[in-house]
Design a protein that fits this description.
Order of helices and strands: EHEHEHEEHEEEEEEHHEEH
Shape: globular
Strand content: 25-35%
Helix content: 25-40%
CATH topology: Spore Coat Polysaccharide Biosynthesis Protein SpsA, Chain A
Distance between the termini: 15 Å
Largest sheet: 11 strands, mixed
Radius of gyration: 19 Å
CATH architecture: Alpha-Beta Complex
Structural class: alpha/beta
CATH superfamily: Spore Coat Polysaccharide Biosynthesis Protein SpsA, Chain A
CATH class: Alpha Beta
Number of strands: 13
Number of helices: 7
Length: 306
């Protein structure tokens, strides 16, 4: 069975250099966060990787990242594809003056021709850990209906920054492990006692969404397309320059309408990301420690075989 990992990387700038957090090395060997996601996904069993980028950065992206990972994947029997997020790939006229991308929901929809089986979606600049990929892939191999989605449920305390507030989707989960609600919450800070929002303590053991979703079949692309048309008719006219079609917001709305279920797959892995420039050193230190501890090899992909 073909299982696909979609990596949302369209936010990468057209100039590769300092300040592009997705391309910042995070170990002593020049690997970036995306390398670790690709490694962990292949190790978990995913056999197709699709990068969602913009057409104007295609050549630079392939030179900096894509060609290298494509060579690794070719050796391992893993296929690689590209999808292109475009401002004018919309079900209507482009609002005059609009330059802001349409959001993660449209980014995934742009990959509709690249997906032929179960698929997962992640951000390009987040380190998720090995267990999250194992959990998602195992779920996707099981028999589920098209509307039975899943997501990796991280522990809030494992996703906080030492350098400032972060935005997280705080999850409410029922006794059977299903998501009942996601509350997008801004400015969550780390405190000596755990975590707080606007000075009010919040549960550091709460499950949070880090935009790592699993979909049992390509049928979800039809749901994305139908709701993108609805979004364009209902949300864009009132906010033509800034309205965004966001994947977590859509899934939350589908959940409330009873159109999907979302199984929360708990993971104890620590998330790493560069929310602030100061985070980069801590991320590099943590990943280098995992290499020293043998969790990863210095030759990152050297432990993978067909």
């Amino acid at each position: 069975m073909e299982t696909t990992l979609l990596i949302m990387a369209a936010g990468i700038g057209s100039r590769f250099g300092g300040g592009i957090k997705q391309l910042a090395g995070v170990d002593d060997y020049g690997h970036i966060i995306m390398d670790y996601s690709v490694h962990d996904a292949i190790e978990a069993g995913f056999n197709r990787v699709v990068f969602i980028i913009r057409r104007d950065i295609e050549a630079d992206f392939k030179a900096a990242i894509g060609d290298r990972i494509e060579a690794v994947c070719a050796r391992l029997g893993v296929s690689v594809g590209y999808a292109f997020q475009a401002l004018d790939d919309i079900p209507g006229a482009l609002p005059e003056g609009r330059t802001k991308p349409w959001g993660t929901g449209q980014a995934v929809l742009c990959a509709r021709e690249q997906v032929r089986g179960p698929f997962a979606v992640i951000n390009a600049d987040d380190y998720y850990g090995k267990q999250a990929f194992v959990n998602l892939h195992r779920y996707l191999l099981e028999r589920h209906g098209d509307s039975a989605l899943c997501m990796a449920g991280f522990i809030l305390r494992n996703t906080l920054s030492e350098n400032g507030g972060v935005t997280r989707g705080l999850c409410r989960v029922d006794g059977q492990g299903y998501l009942t609600d996601v509350v997008e919450t801004a400015d969550i800070i780390k405190t000596p006692g755990g975590a707080a929002v606007n000075g009010v303590a919040t549960d550091p053991e709460a499950r949070v969404s880090m935009n790592m979703w699993g979909f049992p079949s390509p049928a979800f692309m039809d749901v994305l397309e139908i709701n993108f048309r609805r979004f364009f008719d209902e949300a864009v006219p009132g906010n033509p320059q800034k309205a965004e079609y966001l994947l977590p917001v859509l899934i939350g709305a589908l959940l409330k309408r009873g159109e999907v279920t979302v199984r929360v797959l708990p993971t104890g892995d620590k998330w790493y990301g560069v929310t602030y420039a100061e985070d980069r050193a801590a991320v590099a230190e943590s990943i280098n420690r995992m290499v020293s501890d043998g969790i990863y090899k210095a030759d990152l992909y050297g432990d993978l075989t067909k």
